[in-house]
Write a structure and sequence with these properties.
Low-confidence stretches: none
Radius of gyration: 43 Å
Strand order of the largest sheet: 5-8-7-6-9
Helix content: 10-25%
Mean pLDDT: 80
Pfam family, one: SAF
Strand content: 15-25%
Order of helices and strands: HHEEHEEEEEEHE
InterPro entries: SAF
Largest sheet: 5 strands, antiparallel
Shape: elongated
Protein name: SAF domain-containing protein
Keywords: Membrane, Transmembrane, Transmembrane helix
Structural class: alpha+beta
Number of strands: 9
Distance between the termini: 126 Å
Number of helices: 4
Length: 227
């Protein structure tokens, strides 16, 4: 006699069913809670990032025409049209060069410091005060090769004018300082007589004595350390 087994359909019975226990209810998957505030913050950050990238690209692409120095302009010299050239730079809030459209306002002003070629011109580098300033006198001192250093003198150098007597001995004059402080404005090339004329600024109280000794060739120039 053949024993028949009931056909198996569906999934295998769970351990709970095998022991006669009811099947545990199937719980639905947990629903994710949406947070509108976080979603809005994420969208805002994306928008701000896009705006920032756009602004950066636009800023880097913007250029402006400014004034640059075409050749060296010594301290105290008046700027001319030949000293200036147009330069195009990217906008940068850290730089404050003079716009090229103001070129005509710059011509005729005085360099407040020595301006190097290729540098951008700023307002701080200019002055409308011409040399000599009040209380000063501008004097040309002719000196021979043995009366000044071989190192070239530059505008703005601080020097001492040392009076010398005929024969190169130090000289003193009653009531007048033996040594006069001065500032170099310009140093010319050697002349046919072997003398080099150096323009210097001195206090107006020292001007007459310096001029008299310079005319006699009785002044030597000594360069001192600047500030």
């Amino acid at each position: 006699m053949t024993r028949t087994q009931p056909p198996t359909t569906g999934a295998a019975p769970s351990p709970a069913e095998m022991h006669g226990l009811p099947r545990a209810p199937v719980l639905p998957p947990p629903r994710r809670r949406r947070r509108p505030a976080l979603l809005a913050l994420a969208v805002s950050m994306v928008v701000l990032g896009a705006l920032g990238a756009t602004y950066l690209a636009t800023s880097l692409g913007q250029t402006t025409a400014v004034i640059a120095i075409a050749r060296e302009v010594p301290w105290g010299q008046t700027l001319t049209a030949a000293d200036l050239v147009e330069a195009t730079i990217s906008a940068d809030p850290a730089l404050e060069p003079i716009p090229y459209v103001d070129r005509d306002e710059v011509i005729g002003l005085v360099a407040a410091t020595t301006l190097g070629p290729g540098s951008l011109l700023t307002r701080d580098a200019l002055t409308d005060e011409r040399l000599p300033a009040p209380g000063q006198q501008l004097i040309g001192v002719g000196v021979s090769l043995v009366q000044l250093p071989t190192t070239p003198l530059r505008p703005g150098d601080d020097v001492l004018l040392v009076p010398v007597a005929a024969g190169s001995a130090p000289a003193t004059t009653q009531g007048v300082p033996s040594v006069v402080e001065a500032t170099v404005v310009n140093s010319g090339p050697p002349g046919t007589d072997g003398l080099r004329v150096v323009d210097v600024l001195v206090d107006e109280a020292d001007g007459p004595d310096v001029a008299a000794r310079a005319a006699a060739g009785l002044i030597a120039i000594v360069v001192v350390a600047g500030e």
